[in-house]
Fold this protein.
Amino acid sequence: MFPSWDLFIIMMGFLVVAYSVIIGKHDTMKIIIGTYIAMLTADGVGNLFADYIFPRTDLFPIFQAVGQSILIIGTKILFFVSCIVYLTLKARFDVEVSDSESHIASTFISILLGFLSALLIISTILVYASGSSFVLQSLNMSESFMTFVYSQSYLVKILLDHSSIIFALPAIYFLLDSVFGKE
């Protein structure tokens, strides 16, 4: 018996939250901002590849064997993860956050931001894996594998069905922190 997709998602979420606690809220906020940038970059690049590179199966016969949609999904996920890593390590922006709260409050905020970051990253990967685009259209469960995973996994279903609110939550946190947080 294989572990469920729910277990995999929970483990990935715990890894992201643990990493967020280790690096702190400043760098976790930088990762969240980088994730938003990476989402749009990967979606745009993947859509460009779909329109101009992958349709030309006569030039690259391997595209026919692998399948155009799998290549587009793989391209989006690869660009997404690569952009997050690059922006986290090399981005030329910093996030400044007030450190006036106690160590316990700071740890709680790091955990919260890690949870929001994990939701954002995992939901984005699932949206791409479902064959969908943020720029062009809504969710499109055209891939039989993702349809199977969606029907078998409670968490995948929640993350895909509520992806709009999941994408908004970190931004809402930033807005509330900007309005009500200490300067």
In short: The first helix runs from residue 5 to 53.
